[in-house]
Every structure is written in structure tokens, then in C-alpha cells.
Amino acid sequence: MQTGIYVSLAIYFVAMLGIGFYAYRSTNNDVSGFMLGGRSLSPSVTALSAGASDMSGWMLMGLPGAMYVSGLSSAWIAIGLIIGAWLNYLLVAPRLRVYTELAGDSVTIPQFFEQRFADNSRLIRLVCALVIIVFFAIYTTSGVVAGGKLFETSFGMSYYTGVWVTAGVVVAYSAFGGFLAVSTTDFVQGCIMFVALVLVPIVALMQLGGVAPTKAEILAIDPNMLSLGGASILAIISAASWGLGYFGQPHIIVRFMAIRSVKEMKTARRIGMSWMIVTLIGATMVGLVGVAYVSATGATLNDPEAVFIFLSTTLFHPLISGFLLAAILAAIMSTISSQLLVTSSSLTEDLYKTFCRRNAESGELVLVGRLAVVAVALLAIGLAQNRDNSILSLVSNAWAGFGSAFGPVVLIGLFWKRMTRAGALAGIVVGAVTVLVWIYGPFTYQGQALSSLMFELVPGFILASLAIVVVSVLSPEPPIQLQQLHAQMEAKLDADLRS
């Protein structure tokens, strides 16, 4: 059985490395080509790349595991994510695509903020780069940890071997192929995830005899498993609030900056949202059907987060099982590669070029970007040596950090021309600090940590938004050229959508 699984995984690894080599040969050796693919992504690649880089291993392990334990009450995370992703496509994507091009052809989010608010002091860029490095170090570590645990539990390898293999393959195609390689592999990985999350629950459902016997089995285990109302109001708000984080995730919204044309954003939105809805439904079904299957067959499942792995290796031929397990690797690697490239871009453009070598040539910056990919990966490997790290905890901390620090600035900055440099800086700092204090501060309520009562993204997003509005209103109006730039963005957006 293991031989068939290894054959499928070997094919998957060769395909990813082949895409990386192709992208290396096809990408222009300049900053825009390496970090943004020359703004040439098709709607389908944009959509599936955004989706795959968003949905890390938690979609095939964390969410099914939560459904396995708690039932439909855990689906509020998925509901919040769907709403947040749709609003991200609708509100942020088209404006960000146009605005970043007009604002000095910005290739990173910190660079866009600097241009948008005419920050000649470079302070916003420096603070943003530090936020990206800190939270993406945490985020990337979660993916590397997930890869190590997958290799350990599924393939009999050591955890540490799995960590190095996962990071090594991602670095190989990311460092050489750049944004084009990352986006193209994300597209392929998104397709693999889609097929896997449709196939596994359907086959398991058929093995149980259909919907009715499966439902009866679940209700016999726990009548509340199929109820959305099994959680408290605060728990529902915390779960659904994950959707707020979308507006500030650099590795997702950078895809919107790279699409060929803003008029193709509607097509990308339809593809992306269709993919997301189907895969999230599939992930929730894996958990629910898994409960019924384990109960009906008398099997033993020690780790609820391994329910997808259990069904994949139990119900299918080894070659198919290898393909399905590759879907987990696809989810993990697509997110890691996106995070590595965004962090590398920030280290190169926002720190190295801005503060060290302002006159660096394009080829030099691309080389620095590739070396930065390797450096960040090595840092993540170092942090991943603690195998007791909680994957979900790492992901939620980084998601909340980015959502609070960048989300309000992106959203308000794209719509409100009165927003000022001081307001943007206040929002970034307040959002990031609130999340860190909420998680790590010595504060409790009735003996409980604040993060256990409310997801830190909620207070972080609210306080950052208030800081932006209050400080902007109290600050002098932005220079006339910035107001003209905002008006130019709106005019071009309207013209592009009408063409």
C-alpha cells in the first residue's frame, strides 16, 4: 500500500518542481516579474491561487476535525470565511488592482501604503515590513509544522524529515520561479484540493448507504451534531469573525494586484467563490460523514484532525490515496509558498532597497528576493523544531494579526480619500498591538484568558478602525495631490469596468 502512495506523491513533487522550472524560464528577471508576475494572471489562476494560498492544511485537517468533534456548530467559521471572501472580491479586489498600479506601480502592500499616503519618512513602510516579517514567520511555521506532522502520521517518516521535505520542495519552486511559479502551482494545488474534497465525502456517503442512513447514524451519536445553534453567541461571533481577516492578508490580496485586467475581476470572483463554497462544504461533510463512518464500522480514530487521512487511506486504492494525501500537501505548500514570497518581497523591496541599496539594479533585487525566500524558510524550520506547536493556534494568531493591522487600513484607505498618513500608521500599530496584548497579555476575565472569550481579530479590527478615523479627522487634510490620486483611481476603475 505504501508503495502506491509514494508513487503518487513522487509524481506530485515532480509536477510542482517542473512548474517551478517552467516559471523560472518564463519569468522576466526583474522585480515586477519575480514578485508580481508582471500583472499578467488570468482570472482562473487569480481565483484558485487566492483560494489555495488562503486555505492551508486546516481546511483538510482542522475544519473536518472540528466538525467531527462539535458538529455543525463549527461551520460558523466556514460561513464567516465565505462572506468575508465575497466582500474581499467585491470591495477590495478591483480598487486595489487599479490603485496599486497608479500609486507608483506598487508591488508590495507596504509600498502601496507609502505611495497612497505620501509617507516620505518611510515609517509606514518600515512598520508594515516588520509586521509582515513577524506574523508571516508565525504563519509559515504553522505550515511547516503541518507538513512535518503529515509525513510522520501518514508515511512513517520522522517529523523532522517531513519538515525539511515540505520546506525544501516549496523553496525550490518559489525561489527560482517567483510569483508565476507560486501562482501556477497554487492553481494546480487548488484543483487537487477541489477534487479531493468532493470525492472523499461522496464515496464515504455511498459506503454508508446514502444520506438517510448517514444522518440517522449521526443523530444516534449526538442529536445536536446537526444543529448550527450548539454554540454561545460569543463563540458564534468569534468563529464568524474570521471573515474580517481577509481584507488584510497580504498573501491573498496580492493576487488581486496581479490580475491582467480589473474587468476580469468579476470572472475571478465567480470562479473563486464557487471553488471556495464547494471545498468548504466538502470539508464540513468530511467531518460529519467521518463521524458516521467510524461509528458504523466500529473503527478507532485517535486524532479527529486525521479524519480526512483515515477516510482517504481506508476507502481508496493506494494510488488514489496518495493523490488524496497530496491534497493535504497541496493545501500546506500553496500557503507556505505564498507566505514565503510575500515576506521575501517585503524584505527585498521594503527593507533592502528602501534602507540599504536604493539604487540597486533589478537583477540584484531578484537575487536578494531568492535568498530571502531561503532565509525565511530556514527561520520557519528553526521555529518548527518544537513539534508541540498547535497548527490552529499559529494560524489564528497570524490571521488575526494581519487582519487587524492591515485590514482596516486597506479597506478604509481604498474608499475614504480623507484618510491620512497619521491615521494609517495609528491603525497599523493599534491593530497589531491589540492582537499581541489580547493573546499574550496578562489580562483575564473571570479567570479566563481574553483570547478564549473572543477571537482577538474582533477587538483588533474594531480598535484599529476607530484609531484610523479619529486620528485622520484630527489630522490636517491630505495633500491635494493625494486627493487627486484617489479621484484618478475612481475614474480609471469606472472606465475599466465600463470598457
From TrEMBL:
Function of the molecule: Catalyzes the sodium-dependent uptake of extracellular L-proline.
Principal place of residence: membrane
Protein name according to UniProt: Sodium/proline symporter
A GO cellular component annotation in the UniProt record: plasma membrane
Catalyzed chemical reaction(s): L-proline(in) + Na(+)(in) = L-proline(out) + Na(+)(out)
Transmembrane segments: 6-24, 75-92, 123-147, 159-180, 187-206, 226-247, 273-294, 306-332, 365-384, 396-416, 423-441, 453-474
Lineage start: Bacteria, Pseudomonadati, Pseudomonadota, Gammaproteobacteria, Arenicellales
InterPro entries according to UniProt: Na/Glc_symporter_sf, Na/Pro_symporter, Na/solute_symporter, Na/solute_symporter_CS, Sodium:Solute_Symporter
Similarity remark: Belongs to the sodium:solute symporter (SSF) (TC 2.A.21) family.
Alphabetized UniProt keyword annotations: Amino-acid transport, Cell inner membrane, Cell membrane, Ion transport, Membrane, Sodium, Sodium transport, Symport, Transmembrane, Transmembrane helix, Transport
Membrane topology label: Multi-pass membrane protein
GO biological process: proline transport
Keyword Transport: yes
Molecular functions per Gene Ontology: L-proline transmembrane transporter activity; proline:sodium symporter activity; sodium ion binding
Entry's localization field: Cell inner membrane; Cell membrane
